[in-house]
Design a protein that fits this description.
Structural class: alpha+beta
CATH topology: Trna Endonuclease, Chain: A, domain 1
Shape: globular
CATH architecture: 3-Layer(aba) Sandwich
Radius of gyration: 15 Å
Strand order of the largest sheet: 1-2-3-4
Number of domains: 1
Distance between the termini: 54 Å
Order of helices and strands: HEEEHEH
Length: 110
Amino acid sequence: MLPSIIAFFFMERIMRENSYQAGLIKRIEARFRGSVCIKNDANLRQGIPDLTVLWGRTWFVLETKAFKGAPSRPNQGWYIDKFNEMCFAAVIYPENEEDIFREIERTLQP
């Protein structure tokens, strides 16, 4: 019984994150006119952030979470730090979305 409960909560968390991410992609492309949002494949490289956004002559990556405090997977923090040194990277969730959008605009305005 316990494994099925754990599987249920794991699947619900993934579904919540996927639902948030689908809407987020639309909001990114509306807010950052002309941008192209690419969903990355975590199966190719463990911990790679979920989204890469190409915008003008710059880019940024975002790791999406369904809620503040959602657990991270191995290597995610390392990639966020590495990409933030190169251009811009952040963890984004509903509670900080507007703050992250403003930070992207302030940091990367083309």
